[in-house]
TrEMBL record:
Leader sequence segment: none
Name of this chain's protein: Luciferase family oxidoreductase group 1
Pfam families: Bac_luciferase (PF00296)
Annotated InterPro entries: Bact_Lucif_Oxidored (IPR050766), CmoO-like (IPR019949), Luciferase-like_dom (IPR011251), Luciferase-like_sf (IPR036661)
Family: To bacterial alkanal monooxygenase alpha and beta chains.
Residues in Luciferase-like domain copies: 1-298
Top-level lineage group: Bacteria
């Protein structure tokens, strides 16, 4: 089974943003040690508890501290930028770290409406133009435009020997069809979705087309917390569950709470109902339980690969979770 890592670079209560970003570097190194296929870091803006607003910057830092694992953005939120600049940035990374760079792209804002205005001024228009932006980005990455195209005479320099691997991320029928129509691999965010994801991924497979005989590939991203025992995993999960409850209330400015803070928090009946719904999109358990659930999800989605997102208060608990899963499925 191919397993990979999705990192949101969370900041825990009492932790600095720098410490959170250094923990992300350590996570990528652990992923490399335990033979995870790739490490992706997400883009978020002005969101409490999340440190990475510029994946392309972190990838340069992480690439210099790892040797083999594929590293990438999960995702660069394309409506915020021009495709040419995104291609230039990732071509530079692919030149520095040959055959290791992934470029995941998405269309979500990654922050509030005010953030979208600050980044792109006309975000809604950019979302409408997203399909065209994807085609432009493909052209720049391949250095391949028709001779009469307006961009035919320019390149997104430097041109690496191996172009970044372009992935389209999403969790809707629209994103699945866009990936299929462009012959792109597709990453589905199961951990965020409340819809029937298997139908969306099937839509991708059923409509996949390619000019270069590429085969459809899918990553399914899932939320996982693994520990030596189920009881410990459930306890560790309280931190991220409380964090999500607080975010829903607009009260999450202190970062990921500790287990002790979560255990003493006065959850209301509404909070508990929210937690029960959140746990439906999480895998929480001991290594054997997590292994079985991951196998079931891979089979259910016909996924090429699974990508695991783990959020705990203590970085060491997150690192240990990935280690335990790797020893069950990768070693």
């Amino acid at each position: 089974m191919k397993l990979s890592i999705l990192d949101q670079s969370p900041i825990s209560s009492g932790q600095t943003a720098k410490a959170a970003l250094e923990a992300s570097v350590k996570l990528a190194q652990i992923g490399e040690e335990y033979k995870y296929t790739r490490y992706w870091i997400a883009e978020h803006h002005d969101l409490p508890g999340l440190a990475c607003s510029a994946p392309e910057v972190m990838l340069g830092y992480i690439g210099a501290r790892t040797n083999q694992i594929r590293i990438g953005s999960g995702a660069i939120l394309l409506p915020n930028y021009r495709p040419y600049k995104v291609a230039e940035t990732h071509h530079l990374l692919a030149t520095l770290f040959p055959n290791r760079i992934d470029l995941g792209i998405g269309r979500s804002p990654g922050g509030s409406a005010e953030v979208s205005m600050a980044l792109s001024k006309n975000f809604l228009e950019a979302v409408r133009e997203f399909p065209q932006a994807v085609k432009e980005l493909k052209g720049f990455l391949a250095n391949d435009f028709a001779s009469d195209h307006m961009y035919a005479k320019i390149t997104a320099a430097p041109l690496p020997q191996t172009a970044p691997e372009l992935w389209l991320l999403g969790m809707s029928k629209k994103s699945a069809l866009l990936a299929a129509e462009n012959g792109l691999p597709y990453a589905y965010a199961d951990f965020m979705s409340e819809t029937n994801g298997t139908e969306i991924v099937k839509l991708y497979y059923d409509n996949f087309t390619s000019e270069h005989n590429a085969k459809p590939e899918t990553i399914v991203a899932v939320s996982v917390i693994c520990a030596e025992t189920t009881e410990k995993a459930e306890k560790l999960a309280l931190s991220s569950l409380l964090w999500n409850v607080l975010m829903a209330k607009g009260e999450a400015r202190e970062g990921i709470p500790s287990v002790e803070e979560a255990e003493s928090y006065p959850f209301t009946t509404k909070d508990k109902e929210l937690i029960m719904n959140m746990k439906k999109n999480m895998i929480i358990g001991n290594p054997q339980e997590v292994r079985q659930k991951l196998i079931e999800i891979k089979t259910m989605y016909r996924a090429t690969e699974l990508m695991l997102l783990t959020i705990t208060h203590e970085p060491k608990d997150k690192w240990r979770s990935y280690e335990l899963i790797a020893k069950e499925l990768l070693c």
